[in-house]
Design goal:
globular, alpha+beta, four-stranded antiparallel sheet, Double Stranded RNA Binding Domain, 4 strands, 39% helix, 3 helices
Length: 105
């Protein structure tokens, strides 16, 4: 079976002593003590969500896979992305990234 990859836009930011990771394309979020762990949890959550949408809840897959995060989260992602382009040094408080998800074609 061929797998089709697609990209999910995400960001993470440090809030007090926790990292919050958000997928703006699906409206999902996780938190953890470290950035790598927050990203790992978000990646797992994205994969589980997409799998469920395409298998268990296939009748509603179109709505589930086009669900966006609130405007405030999408604007925050764009602001972080812009700052990363202007000031390419790594921030210790926030970062934007993309997750590549492969699904059966």
């Amino acid at each position: 079976m061929r797998r089709t990859p697609f990209v999910m836009r995400c960001y993470a930011k440090r809030v007090d002593d926790q990292w919050v990771a958000v997928c703006i394309d699906l409206g999902l979020a996780t938190q953890s003590d470290s950035l790598p762990d927050a990203r790992k949890k978000l990646d797992s959550q994205i994969r589980d969500y997409v799998h469920e949408a395409l298998t268990v809840d296939r009748a509603h897959a179109a709505e589930l896979l086009t669900r966006k995060a609130p405007l405030a989260n999408r604007l925050e992602y764009q602001a972080i992305r812009l700052l990363q382009r202007i000031l390419p040094s790594k921030s210790e408080r926030e970062c934007a990234f993309e997750e590549l998800v492969s699904v059966p074609a």
